[in-house]
């Protein structure tokens, strides 16, 4: 998981398969330096992974979730970004798309 911003962040929070991490909280006079990242090993993503980042100013902030070298979720927004990956949702969406006629 990676968070990048133009400057610094005030808060970063993530969870994986319903196991929430404690928020990483900066202070206005001691913000979280960017870029920030963490990594961990999971055998399989069952329920999903989310990453939330709040910038310490009005800069753009990007959150990115990777599985190995593959980006599975990414979002860039002003001030705050949330990215999420849910394999059950992705599977259901693909099943619906497979039902749509191609011609």
Helix-strand pattern: EEEEEEEEEEH
> Count of helical segments?
1
Taken as a percent bin, the fraction of beta residues is over 45%
Q: Rg to the nearest angstrom?
A: 16 Å
Could you say which overall geometry the principal axes of the C-alpha atoms support? elongated
Oligomer kind: single chain
Q: Structural class, please? A: mainly beta
Helical content class: 10-25%
Pick out the low-confidence regions.
none
Structure summary, number of beta strands: 10
Q: Give the N-terminus to C-terminus distance in angstroms.
A: 39 Å
Number of domains: 1
Query: What does the main sheet amount to?
Result: 6 strands, antiparallel
Q: What integer is the average pLDDT?
A: 82
How is this structure best described in words?
This protein has 103 residues and is mainly beta. The chain has one domain (2-99). Helices cover 13% and strands 50% of the residues. The protein is built from 1 helix and 10 strands; from the N terminus they run E-E-E-E-E-E-E-E-E-E-H. The strands form 2 sheets. Strands 2, 3, 4, 5, 7 and 10 form a 6-stranded antiparallel sheet that branches. A 4-stranded antiparallel sheet has the order 6-1-8-9, with no helix packed on it. The longest helix has 13 residues, at 87-99. The relative contact order is 0.24. InterPro entries: MmpS_C.
Task: Summarize the entry for a quick read.
The chain is built from 1 helix and 10 strands; from the N terminus they run ββββββββββα. It has 103 residues and is mainly beta.
